[in-house]
Specification:
The chain is an alpha/beta fold. It has 27 helices and 34 strands. 36% of the residues lie in helices and 19% in strands. The strands form six sheets. The chain has an eight-stranded antiparallel sheet with strand order 9-5-6-7-11-3-2-13. Strands 19-26-25-21-22-23-24-20 form an eight-stranded mixed sheet. An eight-stranded parallel barrel has the order 27-28-29-30-31-32-33-34, surrounded by four helices.
Length: 834
């Protein structure tokens, strides 16, 4: 072993350090040292002469053994094992002798770019056979056949003898949905190395050293395959137990193993795989660890024929009165504005004359009270669902809740929820508001539903209770058994099913750290927010009511960066007059103790409708008459609101919503100046622009020439930049404001403001996302306005940051290929692993 071993590049592309691979197994060198290539070509070649040790069943990875025993793993892309071989063509077989430069695997770059997590391809020396890497190419373009890695001979180390002893064995079945591919193989090897015993994995008349990831992969074990673990040595029993527990625990990729059916009566197991992690949409933030508790809702049956109109009507009237009285008691005894508001809405539905009138008509036709009530509710449910308005359609749950409550009274039954053990994570198709309010909140750790929406009343209730919740997680929720261990990561919209012991321990540690961090952050929340070097960053609150203002003041908000005035205009039959508006704005300003305020002008249209401000039918309401366009068409509404703001909160700044052109800003400015003249006011009121459209971001420098400030509304900016309706549940999991396209628009807006010495803030949902905070600051944002609950931790984080580090992070974030990559980059930065 005297000569260097040179490994040539197996791909055309860009060489990068292994640490930049967005996967900890590769980045932390758990499989071995090496580097990665971001490919520009679709053919993987042999890096040297050798023998093919293993070709993975999914055709995405191949291992080669060079002369002297050096083993090299080439893993095309990340998470490509899930493609099941689609997009790959293998040109070699196990045991085949190959020459440097020979074709090994061809792959379809378009398929991988669309479906894989990343195209980046790790090239790993899994067994250096006593050699060490002395040279490697990195941070440069590379062509097939160019020198990539050099391994020099090292000093041979004598193998340590292992005490003899009996060989212990244990049978296992592989539960991992994609089998023992690279990452789980690395985890097994890492575990095996902690023991003195020699551990092997036996399957298909072959034996692999458990310390060798490549050897494990070479067995080709798939989901449901049987294998035998064998261990010999002084700690063989403990080693056997540890490795078996790791594999049988699924390592976060477990899926149910079903016995083969005697006949093809149902879909094959492969169609049901994927239970290990369910992806949904965050409805209430947080992290929870607990056991699955299923909410089974029995369908209530009703007979169609009544027993006389008078008797049935009396029964319905009594049931409606009983439910109304119960709603009143719950509202009076319950805590929290959200709870009271929802119960109040239910009471209003209960008294709806159209609803009760339709039920009475059906009773008059000979139907039973239960049948009549269900039919009346059902007609409204279908009507609401057919409107195409997400906000209204999510009120369907409220009607179904009332239907069930009344039917239970008619049947003389009670809706008893499940008995919750401590740390329960509730699983259901959907949860009705009354069902959630009836649960023991002290024992409820989290909620995950197969259906539902992120702005439903259940989502609002869960957030007000501080219970993490994920909705729209799909049919896999129904397949989870009662009592299964779960990790609910609502922030990421994920439910981890049957996680292994290490994942559970990590989650518990995270929960404890978060609790300590929140407590410390609350203690310091009232102090002004400055970065580590003293740079001032203003942390404000988003408000929508007087109660929000009171909560913001308690949370340490330094002001209000966004007062949504829609709370005064929606869900009523007539517009609020100047007097009512002025009084409400004044009350909120008083609750904020004179702190700075930014009041956004009325933003209706799209998914926010007011009956007294009719907007004609629009094929695409999100691109129709909304925001400032409504105000331009109804100048009296704009003038009344401007006068009310000047009366109730004269110190407040005013912000125009959904601006797309300079002419709209000028029109609002003219109306504001006219209102001031009519009221005899002198001086000037600051008028800003809410950057919510790509047009506003792209022309921010033009707007900044005449505006007094800019504030980015990331919720709408994201949906318009990505052409994804944020109310579409099928797209909800894909809409992420950390998308590089959105960040580039924010950067453009910030730069436009700087040209005219204006400050730029962010008042959308992204401002309260801790992963986004350092990036936004790095883009030049100096004011962040967020939900009150996020303020203490955001302030605590900002105090640890430096402007230079944030600027460098932002620069890197703009060049990432996806929002997932941006989040991974930021999380690494925040955990100090960068």
């Amino acid at each position: 072993m005297s000569a260097d071993l040179v490994l040539l590049s197996p791909l055309d592309g860009w060489a990068a350090p292994l640490a930049e691979v967005p996967d900890p197994v590769f980045a932390q060198a758990m499989l071995g040292e090496g580097l990665a290539i971001d490919p520009t070509g679709g053919v993987l070649h042999a890096p040297c002469d050798g023998v093919i040790v293993a070709v993975h069943a999914a055709r995405h990875a191949v291992s080669l053994r060079a002369e002297g025993g050096v083993e090299i793993l080439m893993h095309v892309g990340l998470d490509t094992v899930a493609l099941g071989g689609e997009g790959f063509e293998v040109h070699v077989a196990e045991g085949q002798v190959v020459s440097a430069g020979q074709r090994l695997i061809s792959f379809d770059l378009a398929v991988l770019a669309e479906r894989a997590t990343s195209l980046i391809t790790p090239i790993i020396v899994t067994d250096a056979a006593g050699r060490s890497i002395t040279a490697r190419l990195s941070g440069a373009a590379v062509k097939v056949g160019e020198r990539l890695l050099t391994l020099a001979p090292g000093v041979a180390v004598a193998a340590q003898a292992v005490a003899a002893g009996p060989e212990l064995t244990r049978a296992i079945v592989v539960p991992l949905m994609h089998g023992l591919h690279a990452r789980p193989a690395a985890r097994v090897a890492e575990t095996a190395k902690r023991f003195q015993a020699e551990i092997s994995l036996l399957a298909l008349n072959r034996r692999a050293n458990a310390r060798s990831p490549v050897g494990i992969m070479s067995l080709g074990l798939r989901h449901g395959d049987s294998a035998t673990l064998a261990a010999a040595g002084p700690d063989a029993a403990a080693a056997l137990e540890a490795v078996a527990e790791l594999i049988e625990g699924g390592m976060g990729e477990g899926a149910p193993i079903r016995s083969p059916a005697p006949a093809p009566v149902e879909a094959p197991p492969a169609r049901r795989a994927g239970l290990a992690v369910l992806k949904g949409v965050m409805a209430s933030p947080g992290l929870a660890v607990g056991k699955a508790v299923r909410l089974f809702v029995e369908e209530l049956t009703v007979v169609e024929a009544g027993q006389g109109a008078a008797q049935e009507q009396a029964a319905l009237d009594a049931a409606l009165a009983a439910v109304g009285a119960r709603l009143a008691r719950e509202a009076e005894s319950g805590e929290g504005q959200a709870r009271r508001a929802i119960l109040g809405a239910h009471a209003a539905f209960l008294e709806d004359p159209e609803l009760t009138g339709q039920a009475a008509r059906l009773i008059g036709e000979g139907k039973s009270a239960g049948f009549a009530w269900r039919s009346a509710i059902g007609a409204y449910v279908e009507a609401l669902r057919g409107l195409g308005d997400r906000r209204i359609a999510e009120r369907v749950d409220d009607l179904l809740d009332l239907e069930r409550r009344v039917l239970l009274i008619l049947a003389g039954e009670e809706d008893r929820g499940p008995e919750l053990p401590p740390g329960a994570i509730l699983l259901a198709e959907e949860v009705l508001p009354s069902q959630l309010m009836g649960l023991d909140a002290g024992r409820l750790a989290g909620i995950c539903t197969a259906r539902g929406g992120p702005t439903s009343h259940v989502a609002i209730l869960a957030a007000s209770m501080g219970v993490p919740a994920v909705v729209a997680a799909g049919p896999g929720v129904a397949a989870i058994n009662e009592g299964t261990s779960l990790i609910l990561d609502a922030d990421a919209g994920l439910l981890h099913v049957a996680p292994d012991a290490k994942a559970l321990e990590t989650a518990q540690t995270t929960l404890a750290v978060r609790a300590e961090r929140r407590a410390a952050a609350r203690l310091a929340s009232r102090e002004d927010c400055r970065m580590a070097d003293g740079t001032r960053i203003k942390v404000y609150a988003n408000l929508g009511s007087l109660a929000d203002a009171e909560a913001a003041e308690a949370a340490g908000a330094e002001g209000c960066g966004l007062l949504r005035t829609e709370f005064l205009f929606l869900e009523r039959d007539t517009a609020p007059d100047e007097e009512e508006q002025a009084e409400r704005y004044g009350a909120i300003a008083a609750a904020m103790g004179g702190r700075p305020m930014i009041i956004r002008l009325l933003d209706v249209g799209g998914d926010k409708t007011a009956p007294y401000l009719p907007i004609g039918p629009e094929e695409n309401p999100a691109l129709g008459v909304r925001g400032v366009r409504v105000l331009m068409r109804r100048p009296q509404v704009l003038k009344t609101q401007l006068r009310a703001i000047l009366r109730g909160a004269p110190h407040a700044k005013i912000m125009a919503p959904m601006v797309a052109s300079l002419s709209e800003l000028r029109a609002v400015r003219a109306a504001l100046d006219e209102a001031r003249r009519e009221m005899g006011r002198v001086g000037r009121t600051d008028l800003g622009v809410m950057i919510e459209t790509p047009a506003a971001a792209a022309t921010a420098d033009l707007l900044a020439a005449e505006a007094d400030f800019l504030s980015v509304g990331t919720n709408d900016l994201t949906q318009y930049a990505l052409a994804m309706d944020r109310g579409n549940p099928d797209l909800a999991g894909e809409i992420d404001a950390l998308h590089p396209a959105v960040l580039r628009l924010i950067a453009q807006a910030s730069e436009g403001g700087r040209k005219h010495a204006l400050w730029t803030g962010v008042c959308g949902g992204l401002a309260g996302d801790l992963a986004a905070v350092p990036i936004l600051i790095g883009l030049g944002i100096t004011e962040l306005s967020m939900p009150s609950a996020a303020i203490p931790e955001a302030k605590a984080l900002i105090r640890t940051l430096s402007p230079g580090a944030c600027a460098e992070l932002a620069r890197k974030a703009l060049d990432q290929p996806s929002p997932e990559a941006v989040r991974a980059l930021s999380n690494t930065f925040l955990t100090g692993e960068a």
